[in-house]
């Protein structure tokens, strides 16, 4: 009998720079405090190496963590080329990919990223404007878009999406209570 895991492993894909580190950390802590997720936030996982060595080590670690993840959370507010690569890699592994967006300006800036939009399984947003934009977007209108009233509810929404995705795939799952 297969052992049913009790925690969902989430890889957070987001740009790592001084402007985004705090936001990324807040999302990771929110998920971890729910007690249902093991979160990999690359900015906390990549070893401390000289910056010149970082570009050689980071991809190796990120690939390893994405391989282990049950789900990838793309922070749409702050992603770049490396994140796009991570999403393509996760998509190739058939991992569910949740896009999380809260900033209208940054969301609109990424509207032409067709390959990333095609890979996203679901979008979750705390912005009514982003919700409406997704419903009008020809590529996003057919994927689930979940309005999250307060960011504190994000873990619950991710959990519900994950269990729905797994049940559709016909895999055994353990429903966890929030």
Per-chain topology:
Layout: E1 8-13, H1 21-33, E2 37-40, H2 42-45, H3 51-68, E3 71-75, H4 81-92, E4 97-101, H5 104-109, H6 114-119, E5 122-125, H7 128-136, E6 145-147, H8 154-169
Parallel strand pairs: 1-2, 1-3, 3-4, 4-5, 5-6
CATH class: Alpha Beta
CATH topology: Rossmann fold
Q: Describe the biggest sheet?
A: 6 strands, parallel
How much is the radius of gyration in Å?
16 Å
Structural class: alpha/beta
Give the count of structural domains.
Answer: 1
CATH architecture: 3-Layer(aba) Sandwich
Give the overall shape, derived from the CA principal axes.
globular
Strand fraction equals 15-25%
If you had to describe this structure to a student in words, what would you say it looks like?
- The protein is an alpha/beta fold and 178 residues long.
- The protein has one domain: 3-Layer(aba) Sandwich (Rossmann fold).
- It is built from 8 helices and 6 strands.
- It has a 6-stranded parallel sheet, sandwiched between helices.
- Strand 1, helix 1 and strand 2 form a beta-alpha-beta unit.
- The longest helix has 18 residues.
- The protein is globular and about 45 Å long.
- It starts with 7 loop residues before the first strand and ends in a 9-residue tail after the last helix.
- 31% of the residues are buried.
- The C terminus is likely disordered.
């Amino acid at each position: 009998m297969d052992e049913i895991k009790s925690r969902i492993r989430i890889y957070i894909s987001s740009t790592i720079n001084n402007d985004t580190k705090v936001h990324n950390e807040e999302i990771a802590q929110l998920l971890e405090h729910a007690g249902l997720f093991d979160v990999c936030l690359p900015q906390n996982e990549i070893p401390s190496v000289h910056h010149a060595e970082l570009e050689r080590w980071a991809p190796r670690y990120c690939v390893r963590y994405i391989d282990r993840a049950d789900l990838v959370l793309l922070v749409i507010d702050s992603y770049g080329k490396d994140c796009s690569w991570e999403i393509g890699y996760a998509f190739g592994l058939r991992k569910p990919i949740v896009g999380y967006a809260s900033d209208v300006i940054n969301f609109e800036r990424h509207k032409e990223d067709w390959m990333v939009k095609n890979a996203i399984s679901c979008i979750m947003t705390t912005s009514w404007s982003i919700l409406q934009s997704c419903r009008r977007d020809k590529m996003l209108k057919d994927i689930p878009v979940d309005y999250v009233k307060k960011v504190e509810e994000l873990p619950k929404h991710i959990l519900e999406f994950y269990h729905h995705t797994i049940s559709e795939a016909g895999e055994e799952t353990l429903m966890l209570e929030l």
